[in-house]
Task: inverse folding
């Protein structure tokens, strides 16, 4: 682990960090793919293959584009699978369907409300960013009771760019008045940590998502088993 400086602000990734990606997105994406396939088994099978989805366990393989990429990436693959145009209208349809389905199946990792409450009480400025849509991020935050602690929420469509672009990290730092060098980004994918590094922030990896240790470790200033360890890690530095 690299030696890092003071931390005054913390930007959390959503899926795989605060939200259980497999338990939430597995059943949600299956329902959406079935809906889009409209009873056509061959079309559904093409969606499953493009998504790197394991139907038997309702889970995604680590290299699935849905693990970390924005809708424009996997949406283009879905469009090809369905023979539909890969345009903004189709991507908006996907986003709305997934917003409804993931909110319905939403499952947290541990107790993020207690974690964020504890960090906020200690004076840390908190935010959340995702390559999901902002409206979905806010819906998930409300359902989990996190919204009152978050001073900043950004999705791929919030105007700051999508990970690994540093834009959301820089926007968060500016919004809370803390330099990027004193901002920690906590996430479970290489894209999360790459966005942190590109912004000059501190990259904290967590192993609660689909990305294996060996892939995540080289990109992290610190690597934790779960976000629940983050408060203890802050005290131990």
Result:
């Amino acid at each position: 682990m690299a030696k890092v400086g003071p931390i005054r602000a913390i930007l959390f990734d959503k899926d795989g960090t605060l939200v259980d990606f497999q338990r939430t997105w597995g059943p949600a994406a299956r329902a959406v793919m079935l809906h889009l396939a409209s009873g056509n088994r061959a079309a559904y099978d093409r969606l499953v293959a493009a998504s790197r989805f394991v139907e038997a366990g309702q889970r995604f393989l680590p290299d699935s584009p849905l693990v970390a990429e924005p809708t424009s990436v996997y949406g283009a693959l879905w469009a090809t699978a369905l023979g539909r145009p890969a345009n903004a209208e189709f991507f908006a349809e996907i986003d709305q369907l997934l917003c409804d389905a993931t909110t319905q199946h939403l499952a947290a990792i541990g107790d993020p409300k207690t974690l964020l409450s504890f960090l906020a009480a200690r004076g840390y400025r908190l935010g959340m960013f995702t390559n999901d849509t902002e409206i979905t991020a806010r819906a998930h935050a409300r359902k989990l009771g996190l919204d009152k602690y978050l001073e900043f929420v950004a999705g791929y469509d919030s105007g700051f760019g999508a990970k690994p672009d540093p834009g959301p990290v820089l926007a968060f730092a500016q919004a809370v008045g803390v330099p990027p060098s004193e901002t920690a980004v906590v996430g479970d994918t290489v894209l999360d940590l790459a966005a942190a590094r590109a912004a000059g922030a501190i990259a904290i990896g967590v192993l609660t998502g689909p990305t294996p240790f060996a892939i995540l470790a080289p990109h992290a200033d610190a690597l934790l088993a779960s976000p629940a360890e983050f408060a203890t890690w802050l005290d131990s530095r």
